[in-house]
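Module 6 notes. Inverse folding takes a fixed backbone as the condition and produces residue identities as the prediction. Think of it as a translation problem where the source language is geometry and the target language is the twenty amino acids. Below is one complete input and output pair. Work through it position by position during the lab.
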């Protein structure tokens, strides 16, 4: 019974976040993500065009609680944008609601948004977004960029997640949703995201 309630809560969060995210518009100057994701993102490659509802982290099962859009420019020409998935432990959520009240989650969301945005900028800065002369085509070039940005983001966000978990006692994970990535190489529009409602 408790597991089914947690699943329903997770589905409700997804329904709410689906209404709050913006549709990503394709640009002729951008390279759209290929249908398949790189092997390095083994946990996301099984999801296809839809994000997985749960994620295993250590010995905990985390539920998808938020989908955030993000984008960053490396310079005037290069950048990337896409969606990032926020997972949280439902048992931690219930405990924190009892101890501190549900209003604390607004602060948590702001903190996550801030450190995820900073990690994305660091990841973009560390990613070589120049056209790859050795790629065998647009799909391979896209896969290499996606793999590189995903790895750089995970490295950049890891310490912030650990600090957040220590401060809040909420187990979370923030991962890039690679099928949503769009890379800019001839004019960066990644920071021109529409604000969420």
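Target side of the pair, the amino acids:
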């Amino acid at each position: 019974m408790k597991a089914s309630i947690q699943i329903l809560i997770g589905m409700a969060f997804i329904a709410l976040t689906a209404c709050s995210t913006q549709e990503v518009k394709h640009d002729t100057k951008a390279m759209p993500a290929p249908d398949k994701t790189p092997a390095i993102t083994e946990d996301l490659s099984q999801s296809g065009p839809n994000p997985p509802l749960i994620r295993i982290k250590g010995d905990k099962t985390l539920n998808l609680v938020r989908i955030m859009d993000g984008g960053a420019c490396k310079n005037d020409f290069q950048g990337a944008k896409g969606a990032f998935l926020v997972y949280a432990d439902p048992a931690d959520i219930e405990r924190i609601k009892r101890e501190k009240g549900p209003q604390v989650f607004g602060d948590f969301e702001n903190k996550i948004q801030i450190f995820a945005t900073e990690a994305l900028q660091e990841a973009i800065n560390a990613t070589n977004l120049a056209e790859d002369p050795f790629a065998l085509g647009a799909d391979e070039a896209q896969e290499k960029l996606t793999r590189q940005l995903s790895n750089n983001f995970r490295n950049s966000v890891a310490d912030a997640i650990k600090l957040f978990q220590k401060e809040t006692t909420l187990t979370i994970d923030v991962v890039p949703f690679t099928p949503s990535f769009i890379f800019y190489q001839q004019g960066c529009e990644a920071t021109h995201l529409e604000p969420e409602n």
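Reference fact for the lab report: Residues 1-47, 193-197 have pLDDT under 50 and may be disordered.
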